[in-house]
Automatic annotation (TrEMBL):
Residues 78-404 form the Amidohydrolase-related domain. It comes from Chitinophaga arvensicola. One of its GO terms (molecular function) is hydrolase activity, acting on carbon-nitrogen (but not peptide) bonds. Keywords: Signal. This is Imidazolonepropionase. InterPro entries: Amidohydro-rel, Metal-dep_hydrolase_composite, Metal_Hydrolase, Metallo-dep_Hydrolase. Residues 1-18 form the signal peptide. Pfam families: Amidohydro_1.
Length: 415
């Protein structure tokens, strides 16, 4: 009997933290805590979560761990709000039949692309199989598998006869009139999409084809009636101008294909219209290198860096995003290196990952900061990115709603 009890105790003590329900509570102790961009860190701090919310944050002399609560020793780690990736795709074949992928396999796939990079929120910016994406989201939201809160635009659309050359042989929906735009956007949003995406100018392989301005205006006006954001893929100069004039809310990329820097007037116009920018700098480096072209000093790369740097310097709103899922290499390290090269500092990068997207998508009251009453969406890093932005990619733990959904090594726990 004694042997049996010891075996059972050994079994239960070895259970993963990811199997611990969020409502049981978890205390995170000993980390350096960055509660928000621009706020001095708390060293050796404590964060207590319960029921999916943060219920206390502070120094040990001010915050006491409740008796019998599980404790995760975070000594030497850096704690901040869970990250947002505002440009992802679940289009690779491995995501097909999401409703029936075995749990272990699906967890591995989500860990590889999302959870191991600290993302607790993602925005999917193109789904070619919307029901499949919803099936994936449902399995995550039910708690069956571990993953992020997911927003989606569903299927995006392009100008007539202008599906991007890089999605061939697939063709995206083509919209050529304002009436078609109103009908398409209305249908998408009534089906549950969280936003709309269009190509304000699309590269067909021979030329860049602009979307008719009246179509963009009709799509934007319709989406705004539903209080939903409009994303645009600008491609080059023409697409940038059309997006601004058409009432688009967010650029899904910079627009370096024309190799032309953004002028002060263009930057001012973007800011005046409150347009947010998702840079996806790694995308351009990845595209060049997979064609065996050296990215350093290539005009595509230098233009992309200039455009981000100019908008950030002017105080424009930047949202982190990598285009992962189209980009098949999942590491985020390169994006942080390139953002730093473009001139963004620690607080600016942290803002793109946390408070800026939370505010842009209407969640600032409960997401994006480490504070009492906020969602218990947390990332723990192995080193401090304040000294080196590459450490934003060094994930030790990802926590969503108070539940550990990823850990890079076995947890150190106490009771």
């Amino acid at each position: 009997m004694k042997t049996l009890l010891l075996a059972l105790l050994t079994l239960f003590s070895g259970l993963s933290y990811a199997q611990t329900p969020a409502n049981t509570g978890l205390a995170l102790t000993g980390a350096r805590i960055y509660t928000a961009p621009g706020v001095a860190p708390i060293d050796n701090g404590i964060v207590i979560t319960q029921g999916g919310k943060i219920i206390a944050v502070g120094e040990p002399k001010r915050v006491k761990v409740p008796p019998h609560m599980k404790v995760l020793d975070c000594t030497g780690l850096v704690l901040m709000a869970g990250f947002w990736n505002n440009h992802v795709h679940f289009m690779e074949p491995k995501w097909n039949h999401a409703e029936s992928i075995p749990v272990a396999q699906l967890n591995d796939q989500l860990d590889s692309m999302i959870n191991s990079h600290g993302f607790t929120h993602v925005f999917d910016l193109a789904s070619l199989n919307y029901p499949n994406l919803l099936a994936l989201r449902d399995r995550i939201n039910s708690g069956e598998v571990n993953g992020p809160a997911m927003l989606t635009v569903g299927m995006p659309f392009v100008p007539p006869d202008a599906s991007p050359f890089y999605v061939r042989p697939l063709k995206l929906p083509e919209i050529g009139t304002p009436e078609e735009a109103v009908a398409y956007v209305t249908k998408q949003l009534q089906a549950g999409a969280d936003g709309v995406k269009l190509w304000s100018a699309s590269p067909d392989g021979q030329k860049v084809v602009p979307m008719p301005l009246e179509v963009i205006k009709a799509a934007s006006a319709t989406a705004h009636k539903f209080h939903k954001p409009v994303f645009a893929h600008p491609t080059a100069d023409t697409g940038l101008t059309m997006a601004i004039e058409g009432g688009v809310d967010i650029l899904a990329h910079v627009s370096p294909d024309g190799y032309r820097s953004w002028t002060n007037d263009e930057v001012a116009l973007l800011k005046q219209h409150h347009v947010a920018l998702i840079p996806t700098l790694k995308l351009y480096k990845w595209e060049l290198e997979r064609k065996n072209i050296v990215a350093a000093d290539n005009p595509l790369m230098t233009t992309a860096l200039q455009q981000l740097g100019a908008y950030s310097k002017a105080g424009g709103e930047i949202l982190f995003g990598t285009d992962v899922g189209y980009v098949s290499e999942y590491s985020t390290t390169e994006e942080f290196i390139l953002m730093t090269q473009a001139g963004l500092n620690f607080d600016q990068i942290l803002t793109t990952l946390t408070t800026a997207p939370a505010k842009r998508f209407g969640m600032a009251s409960h997401s994006g900061r480490i504070a009492k009453g906020m969602d218990a969406d947390i990332v723990l890093l192995k080193a401090d990115p304040h000294t080196d932005s590459r450490h934003f990619a060094d994930i030790a733990y990802t926590i969503r709603n108070g539940k550990i959904i990823y850990q890079s090594a076995p947890a150190t726990s106490k009771h």
